[in-house]
Amino acid sequence: METASKDLIIEKTANSKIAQVDFDNLPFGKVYSDHMLVCEYKNGAWQTPKIQPFGPLSLDPTAKVFHYGQSIFEGMKAYKDENGKVFLFRPEENYKRFNISSERLAMPAVPEEVFMNGLNELLKLDSDWIPTTPGSSMYIRPFGFASGSGLHASPADEYTFAIVLAPSGSYFAGKVKVKIEERYSRSANGGVGFAKAGGNYAGQFYPTQLAVDEGYQQVIWTDDTSHEYIEEAGAMNVFVRINDTLLTCPTSDRILDGITRKSILDIAKAEGIATEVRKISVKEIIEAAENGSLKEMFGAGTAAVVSPINAFGFRGTDYDLPELNDSYANRLKKRMTDIQYNKSEDPFGWRVEVK
Amino acid sequence: METASKDLIIEKTANSKIAQVDFDNLPFGKVYSDHMLVCEYKNGAWQTPKIQPFGPLSLDPTAKVFHYGQSIFEGMKAYKDENGKVFLFRPEENYKRFNISSERLAMPAVPEEVFMNGLNELLKLDSDWIPTTPGSSMYIRPFGFASGSGLHASPADEYTFAIVLAPSGSYFAGKVKVKIEERYSRSANGGVGFAKAGGNYAGQFYPTQLAVDEGYQQVIWTDDTSHEYIEEAGAMNVFVRINDTLLTCPTSDRILDGITRKSILDIAKAEGIATEVRKISVKEIIEAAENGSLKEMFGAGTAAVVSPINAFGFRGTDYDLPELNDSYANRLKKRMTDIQYNKSEDPFGWRVEVK
Ligand SMILES: Cc1ncc(COP(=O)(O)O)c(C=O)c1O
Ligand SMILES: Cc1ncc(COP(=O)(O)O)c(C=O)c1O
């Protein structure tokens, strides 16, 4: 059945897969809902977006996404409250960042209507797929890539924007042990580290695998010039608590301007927690670990929410972090997720209802 | 018609497109031959490779190549001599580098048999497509990407290796005017710059476009830490001639170990040209331009062969290079292409006949 409302075509599936899904045991990002949004950019213009059954895409083997990594994405979540209402968290920020990424990757900006209205309609159509088990949510993946063909190393002339939905459980199983990395780097000065460009992630897999082989779950990236300052943790920004001050490093062209990061900073300030945004050296973390002033480290990102780090490794030595009863990580995570799941007031005006 | 010989399945096209091609006016990398090689990696093993009609690939929208840039490639050429014999140039080097790239991108190594035998059979099948117009050749694009699905930022469990063929004319139309870049960078220390990873190229498009808007064709990348040393030019390594010495910078984890680069170095040595492999500062190039000792600059790579640079821009000032009658660029290019097209002896043993 195909219906066209305003500037969106909707083709519904005849075979919902929802009955096959075990919503109590959802993995992260492996189960997909019945529909997806697809919109193509051709002849210099975005075509009419279409919601259609989730299914394969057909591409020329010479599509530039295969050869030149022209691809970007966003990561968002939809949350369902006890009454079945559905909410997004600061979706405008994801939309803005998507187009910051697209500019750096020489891709055409996606119109707000295509992104926002498309997402809204897609979520309404597949709202039964939004899980309600505690800790689970609907992971939303807007992405764009070069579908135009050609082996000349230059931008493509055709692009595809799409959104898929994955009802998901938590990203990490438990607490995370990280390795502070000094050999490999995530991004260059003047590079694309601040963008959610596909290539930034592929480059992390091998060093992360080496860390996993050594018994860690994740790498803490340091700056590629001196390796003296911590920057990010995989797909998370990083926070450090020394005594009672919460620290995170400033964003730069090497670091993603995370929405969770800035939300956590705002919540911390509202909670009366002292915060500092400044460069954080590995040396100072080690010293703090040794003199007992290092209280917490955690990662923050949409997929992994707030992920407490229970130990870090540096040059072969592991440093354990204390177990706190009243950690900032837990307190800030609770404040943030209460806003996300509509369990509390939203003093910041971050929640946006899907309706 | 489908035939299986040894470990290769061959399915020939019923509709050759060759009659539609104007072989005297070939663009670069836009016309593709009738067939392609495809080989899939599944359940921990490479499956039987298949030569099949060139045509679209079908992929899950959640295939990791779209999201995490797990993709690599090679660039090679096949040359046809006056008697119709077909040659590759140092193909073992491309095969080795492909797997150096695949390791860094956490992808499974492609077996030599799949790569080499597959390429050989594909070239034999589509040998009528190899152009003979001067300056043209068959551009060969082996590539590999993550076809396995999932939104978790970790390596895929399925991959596709493929080879497509593009009968091609020259990459650049004429001499090249370049801009020495100080703001944007191509690669990080400890990053993936030495690999032919897709993401390295997408990151260059936007800064290159800015340079094109200022009247240049290409960017000369400098190191991302100090921007004091030149490193590469788009998809080419860079050579500088000061007085009668030919300079090129050493390879590193930021720089691709180009096969043309090392071939040019070997040919130059055999020609009795003084060569130096060492860091080259922007300062020294400017000084040499100003005192007249800067004789030549050129890029070197499979696609663009040897591309003389006729001017470079730095901080808004353009510096012209002299027109030489007997340039190293022309001499070295002729020696190399004579070997490639079987017009001369091959003292280095670089030519490999396709038969
Ligand atoms: C590299 C990187 N850093 C940090 C983050 C966190 O950003 P956000 O909080 O907006 O999800 C992400 C994405 O999730 C990321 O990919
Ligand atoms: C970044 C980069 N540098 C240099 C080169 C030249 O390498 P080769 O001579 O092996 O083609 C290439 C590829 O062509 C490249 O992509």
From TrEMBL, chains A, B:
TM stretches of this protein: none
Asked if the Swiss-Prot or TrEMBL record annotates the protein with the keyword Metal-binding, the reply is no
Tell me what organism the protein belongs to.
Sediminicola luteus
Q: What is this protein called?
A: Branched-chain-amino-acid aminotransferase
Keywords per UniProt: Amino-acid biosynthesis, Aminotransferase, Branched-chain amino acid biosynthesis, Pyridoxal phosphate, Transferase
Question: What does the record give under GO molecular function?
Answer: L-isoleucine-2-oxoglutarate transaminase activity; L-leucine-2-oxoglutarate transaminase activity; L-valine-2-oxoglutarate transaminase activity
Q: Which reaction does it catalyse?
A: L-leucine + 2-oxoglutarate = 4-methyl-2-oxopentanoate + L-glutamate; L-valine + 2-oxoglutarate = 3-methyl-2-oxobutanoate + L-glutamate; L-isoleucine + 2-oxoglutarate = (S)-3-methyl-2-oxopentanoate + L-glutamate
Which NCBIfam families does this one have? ilvE_II, PRK13357.1
Under the heading SUPFAM superfamilies, the entry gives: D-aminoacid aminotransferase-like PLP-dependent enzymes (SSF56752)
The enzyme's E.C. designation: 2.6.1.42
Q: What does this protein do?
A: Acts on leucine, isoleucine and valine.
A Pfam family that the UniProt record links to this protein: Aminotran_4
Q: Which GO biological-process labels does this protein carry?
A: isoleucine biosynthetic process; L-leucine biosynthetic process; L-valine biosynthetic process
